[in-house]
Every structure is written in structure tokens, then in C-alpha cells.
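Interim report to the steering committee. The following record documents the input for NAD(P)H dehydrogenase (quinone) (189 residues).
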Amino acid sequence: MIKVVAICGSLRKASTNRGLIRSAIQLCNDGSIGGMQIEYVDISPLPFLNTDLERDGTFPPPVEAFRRKVRGADSFLFASPEYNYSLTGPLKNAIDWASRAPNVWADKPAAIVSSGGGFGGGRSQYHLRQVGVYLDLHFINKPELFVKEFEPPQKFDSEGNLIDPETTDRLRNVLLSLQAFTYRLQSKS
Ligand code: FNR
């Protein structure tokens, strides 16, 4: 069983990116994808990164809890909008906390999906990939999923739930690719 930690870059209650994560969890729970378990980990309790909060290699309790989840994961699913053409502040903050020595992202596989405006959040995906270079976080390259939230047909309901079957199917393909890549990396370690 592959353990995936899912992280959302939007803290909004009706976040469409959070909706993508809910849908991914559903695909694992209803048997559409076997051998994969996805746990959503909320990054909103994390304080702003400030190295003054670190004491002799320990971190504030919410950071310790987050780092434990990251350390225990086999792979990651990031779902995030773009804010001003880049990663959202909350997502970068979470990534930075878990990068503090020892970097707990290292050598793990990840997939990125996004929902947003004209480019479906695509520009933030490429910035996140760049951050992953330094962290030794290995992203699957394909398939890519950029959900243009306002382009017909309607993709989400008013609560941010994914309601479009084609997008759900594309999300399933992303998860299958992440699963195959995770097995491949694990077989080599
Ligand atoms: C945005 N949004 C946005 N959209 C986009 O396509 N490109 C962008 O650069 C930005 N920039 C931006 C900055 C800030 C501060 C906010 C609050 C919003 C719109 C945003 O991507 C869109 O509302 C998504 O739906 C938000 O994702 P969630 O919250 O639905 O997951």
C-alpha cells in the first residue's frame, strides 16, 4: 500500500484544489485505484517560518506534526492554485518548514495538480517543480493536469467539489502515474 500525503496550497473552505484532493481520496476509497491511500494534511496550523522558533533541532508542535507526516509518506500529491503567477504563500511556507535540516522531502516522488484561472494554475506548477530541484523531490512529468475552473463544462460545485467526469478521469491518470513512479523509485532504493 502506497501512503500518499496530499497538501493543498489554498486554505479556502470551498477551495477547488481541496476539491481535487477530495476527489483523489474518493478514487482510492471506491476501488477505482487500488494499493494507494491518500491522507489530506492541513497546512493552516503552521506558523510563518521563523528560524527563531527552532530550538536545538526541534520545531513548534504543529511543525513537528507536519514534518512527521511528510517523513512517513511514500509520496505526495500537491494541489494548489497560482497566486500572482507562482506558488501560494501557505504552500511555500509548508515546504520551507519541512526542508529544514534534515530535509524530509528528499528522494520522494510527487505529483502536482492545480485549478485556477486562464492557465489552470500551470505557472505555479512550474515554480513548484523548480523548488523540488533543490529539495530532491522528484515530480512525475506526465500527465499534467491544469483545471481551468471557469471554462465550460462546469468543473466544481459551489463547495469546491469536483463534478466533471472527464477531469476526474484525468486526475485518476495522474494518480496511476504517481503510483507507478513511486514503485519504480522504491524498487531502486
Ligand atoms: C489569484 N488567482 C490567480 N489565478 C490565476 O490563474 N493566476 C494568478 O496569478 C492568480 N493570482 C491570484 C492571487 C491571489 C492573491 C488570489 C487570492 C487569487 C485566482 C486563483 O487561482 C483562483 O481563485 C483559484 O480558484 C483559487 O484556488 P482555490 O482556492 O479554489 O483552490
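The domain at 2-187 is CATH 3.40.50.360 (Rossmann fold). The committee is asked to note this result when reviewing the revised timeline.
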